[in-house]
Amino acid sequence: MKPTNKYKFKNKVWSNESGFTLMELLTYISVAGFVFMGVYYVFVKSTDIYVGVLRSSTTIQNAHAASQMLEREAKNVRNNASITIATATQFKFTNVSNTVVDIVYTNQQLQKNTVAFASGISSFSFSYYKWDGTLWTTASPASQIAKIRVVFTMTSQGYSFSKDLYILLRNMR
């Protein structure tokens, strides 16, 4: 009796006459390769973007923390007469607790009383203004300083972030 299904019995081995041709297999492998390369490209690019965002957000957070520290300290100036040094890279004063605070920019660091609280700063400057909004100069007495402008650029892991901050001093009028 002959088998009725599509399988034929040849030398005690079952065989199937249907299947994929070589051309179909090569087409499948090529398409799968292109899909894999696309997925790999998207993965690599998204990883690069994530690393870039992480670096930039870390730099921004560090710059924000440094600016908050500067603002907090500067707002604690006891009075106009307590400012002893006011240069582009140094601001020294006595605070409301009668403690001398010396903020200095040196060697790409911001230091408070010789302790670094921010690093990676590529440029920095203090500017001082009087109550009338005019720029304070060293020829004027330090008692006329009412507002401080701090401009700095922080660079970290290949990313730069600039900050421009105005600090209105307390109890100066």
What can you tell me about this protein's structure?
- Strand 4 (90-94) and strand 5 (100-106) form a beta hairpin.
- The protein has 1 helix and 10 strands; from the N terminus they run ββαββββββββ.
- The protein has a 5-stranded antiparallel β-sheet, covered by helices on one side. A 3-stranded antiparallel β-sheet has the order 8-9-10.
- The mean pLDDT is 87.
- Helices cover 31% and strands 35% of the residues.
- With 173 residues, the chain is an alpha+beta fold.
- The protein has one domain (26-168).
Keywords:
173 residues; alpha+beta; 5-stranded antiparallel β-sheet; 3-stranded antiparallel β-sheet; 1 helix; 10 strands; 31% helix; 35% strand; rod-shaped
Chain-wise SSE layout:
Blueprint: E1 8-10, E2 13-15, H1 22-74, E3 83-86, E4 90-94, E5 100-106, E6 109-112, E7 115-119, E8 121-129, E9 147-156, E10 159-168
Antiparallel strand pairs: 1-2, 3-4, 4-5, 5-6, 6-7, 8-9, 9-10
Short description:
The protein is built from one helix and ten strands.
Q: Distance between the terminal alpha carbons, to the nearest Å?
A: 115 Å
Broad shape = rod-shaped
Q: How many helices in DSSP terms?
A: 1
Number of domains: 1
Largest sheet: 5 strands, antiparallel
Quote the beta fraction: 25-35%
What is the number of E strands?
10
Give the fraction of residues assigned to helices.
25-40%
